Amino acid sequence: MPEPSDSIVSLHQVEKWYGNNHVVKNMNLDIQKGEFLTLLGPSGCGKTTTLRMIAGFEDATSGIITVQGERVEEKEPYQRDVNTVFQNYSLFPHMTVYDNVAYGPTIKKMPKDDIRKKVEEMLALVQMSGYEKRRPEALSGGQKQRVAIARALINNPRVLLLDEPLGALDLKLRKQMQIELKRLQKKLGITFVYVTHDQEEAMTMSDRIAVMRAGVILQIGSPLEIYNHPNCRFVADFIGESNIMDGTVRSVKGNLLRVETDDGMILTEGDGFKGGEKICVSIRPEYLSISKDVQDGFSVRAKIKDHIYMGTVIKTSLDLDSGKELKFSRFEPDPSLKEGDERYVFWDPAKSVAIHLEAQEVDA
Amino acid sequence: MENVRNRKVQKEKRVRFWSTFYAAVIYAMFYIPVLVMIQFSFNDAKRNYSWEGFTTEWYKKLFTFRNHDLWEALAYSLVIAVLATLISVVIGVLGGIGLKKFRFRGKKFINLMLYVPIVVPEIVLAVAMLIIFMTVGIKLGMGTIVIGHCTFCIPYAVVTIKGRISGDNETLQEASMDLGANRIQTFWRVTIPSIMPGIMSAAFLSFTLSIDDVIMSNMLASARQSTLPVLILSVNRTGITPDINALTTIMVLVMVVGMLLMNGIQRYTAKKEAREIAEIERRISAMNDMAEK
Amino acid sequence: MNAAEKKPRSKLPMIAQVGPVSLWMILFVTIPMLFIVFISFMTRGTFGGVEYTPTLESYRTLADVIYLNVILKSIRVAAVTTITCLLVGYPFAYYIARKPPDIASRLIMLLMIPLWTNSLMRLNAWMLVFQTNGPVNKALLAMGLIEKPVMFLYTDGLVLLGLITNFLPFAVLPMYSSIEKLQNSMLEASADLGAKPSVTFWKITLPLTFPGIFSAIILTFIPALGTYTITDMLGGGKVLYIGNIIKNQFGTIRNWPLGAALSVLLLLITALLIFIYSRFASIEEMEVL
After folding, report:
1. Fewer CB in 10 Å around end: N or C, chain C?
2. A363: which chain B residues are within 8 Å (Cβ-Cβ)?
């Protein structure tokens, strides 16, 4: 079992069953010290379960979990050196902000003066100084969030686990908190393990993202890697917006593939593909181009359907002959493009991704 | 690794065993008197002083209706219970809805008053009402007993209903009126059906409280007729006859069967609704799939 | 319909719904309660009943040693009952509350069924169990723990048992309600922050379930204080508690003002407890069912 010296949390062949439900399947994960790692995936993919197994609220059915090199399966949550920020904050309603934040040190029987100093420090860190005597019910969502973070961080955990902490906040506040959390993490140098289903959030904050589905990590890498080189259809579809076309490889020249789709021929770059192989091709809306003339290697014809002004970009929907819809985005409007106009679609083959089809990837 | 996990599992198993044992002991303590009561309905003795053998004659005797006292007392109790339940449920349900919805002067006072019969010992309530009735000159009898029962049933009904009403009911009523129903129609077609489980709970609670009541029924009764519990109380000195056991056993059986039926009906309708909803969802997703293609 | 014809929002719906219950409460609770306080300050009539001459005679009688003893004894017994119900009932309520909801509601239902049997018959059953030649004595004799059958009947001990078994469900229900509302994430947060289970219990579980505990206290102590059927049946008239004395004043003895005064005493104790409760929670949130 390879153990990179920099990994602070390791999961090795971890499985979790709930009765007949195989919730986490043979998970192997090495979380690096000081990194911001996000477990990203749709509901039910096992990301929260994985987090809870690290925290100690769930026991793995089998497998090894280590924190800083030490095996933790037998350790209760209060024996582990990790702390959690909960989805609904879980602040103790019968205690003031001060008592909530001071809880961990109080349990450890730290001297009162030391506790007071630390609490003041923590509250200043999350910009909640002055709120010591308030009760949780008198705080807004964002404020509760900060107190929860202070309460967790005051214990100097090696790893901070965050379970969709921003889900209940409105959009503007959420974006603000994302930046603050990221800054905090960089400043403190603590490892953050973050769980969310919001891929924009993951892309904004993470050093690495582990995309999960049905109990398995499909791909793990930096946001840029995952965005530009998704290794499967699901990841391509889940992260950002994407156009995915299915087709068959007609010819392979070096790493340039000619692919035949229901709507015409397209070109893409890709390694390790064979002629006759059924694949799918993913191209981001911002890399799509259209022209009145047919381009070399591309023969996909499309009709302009409608435009949506999103503020920063304009998204145009294109209807293909097969009934499929492509999305095409650009920064400036083109008044010459009217609904119903016909254009040809093409792109730089280096910008599209060819993806093998897995046997089980028959999507639902 | 396996040892560690096993230790944890073993500890959890032990905790579970002892806590179940504890709960079982307590349940046993609750059911011993019930079982003894049932057992002694089969006692072959004139009075229940000690067990003298098994017989079913008391049940036979019951159903030949020869002990008039017993059946009269039961009938009396039932009539009172039904009346008290009806009045309490109507006033209590209306009151519960109104108290949750409206604001008015003295609302805090009324809310406080509602808790008095729940918290104050029944003897104090009974005595207070007795004094008033006798001072004003109202004759004691079925009427006064019913009034007495209602006085502690209404608060329980109100509390039950208030616990079942949520904000949802407000929006349901608004939707109904938005669609053209007036207040009375909304009340009958929307409000009442939506809190029906609460109404049934309140009715069941009122009925049980009334039929088992001793103190009020004793203090506010006329000399002529007693309710069943009061009869039992008076016979206790000389010894309880097994036919009383038989009667009370039958009563509790009827209640248990009734409760099971009610539960069964509730669960059946809930399952039916769930099936219908699942069917609709299935059709919607099928349509969506088709639209995507 | 022009503006002049528009009617103001009718108060009729409100009156129709809130009126009956308010009227009933005032007529049959407020007025009787006030009257009983009034009567306690009146004189006992020569042939029973009331003479409307104000006096503190009844209260002076209460201060008499005999009555004081009974009052203190009743309070003591009610207190023991309450504490026992709390200690026994809290773990029981916790056990049920931690089960999945459908099982929990069935367990609660199982708890309620004995309450549907006539309470007097249940008391009579306890008497049969603890009789001189009943199963308990027989078992004790057989095990050689005693030589002669013990007279359990008509003792304070049996009365206490009757009280505890009678009031335990009423203690369990509000505590169950409170414990059930306790969010699991609170306990997890506490453990996450380093607290052992016992610490979590003292610092988190107990404080957060306090409303239920206090409700249990109110719903056990006060009725136990004012009970008279249990003491009557299991005590056989030999054991005197406040409830019995009050009842007697309105039966054979016919000293209404004294009975009223004792009732006022009970009311005062009740009010005191409620007042303490209201310091911690609003009475409308009291878990009753």
Report:
1. N
2. none
- Closest approach of chain C CAs to the CA of A48, in angstroms? 14
Mutate to test the interface with C, among B17, B41, B97, B120 (most CBs of C within 10 A): B120
Per-residue pLDDT reduced to its tens digit, A309-364: 888 888 888 888 888 889 988 888 777 888 888 889 899 989 899 888 875 443 33
**What is the predicted pLDDT for the residue at C191?**
93
Residue A119: domain span: 7-233
User: How far, in Å, CA of B2 to CA of A33, rounded?
Assistant: 28
Find the CATH number of the domain harbouring A21.
3.40.50.300
The answer as to whether C6 is a domain residue is: no
Q: What is the CATH number of the domain that holds C116?
A: 1.10.3720.10
Q: Which residues of A177-195 are buried (b: 16+ CB within 10 A; e: fewer)?
A: bbebbbebbeeeebbbbbb
pTM as predicted: 0.83
Q: How far is CA A14 from CA A62, A208, B3, in A?
A: 6, 20, 17
Q: Specify the pLDDT at position C8.
A: 58
Domain around C89: 65-252+265-285
Q: Is B103 part of the contact surface with chain C (CB cutoff 8 Å)?
A: no
Is the same domain home to A222 and A246?
Answer: no
Where is the domain boundary, A185, A204, A233?
A233
Question: Does C272 fall in a domain?
Answer: yes
Which residues are CB-neighbours of C5 under 8 A, at least 6 positions away? none
Q: Which of C2-6, C203-207, C228-232 has the lowest mean pLDDT?
A: C2-6
Residue A362 forms part of a structural domain: no
Q: How far apart are CA B74 and CA A177, in angstroms?
A: 69
Cβ distance of B98 and C18 shorter than 8 Å: yes
Q: How far is C202 from chain A, CA to nearest CA, in Å?
A: 12
- pLDDT < 70 regions, chain B: 1-5, 65-66, 166-167, 292-293
What is the complex's ipTM, to 2 decimals? 0.83
Same domain for A319 and A183, yes or no, is no
Cβ-defined contact of C208 to A83 (cutoff 8 Å): no
Evaluate whether residue C187 is within a structural domain: yes
Q: Work out how many CB contacts closer than 8 A connect A with C.
A: 58
Number of domains forming the structure of chain C: 1
Tell me the sheet residues that pair with A24: A16
Cβ <8 Å between C193 and A76:
no
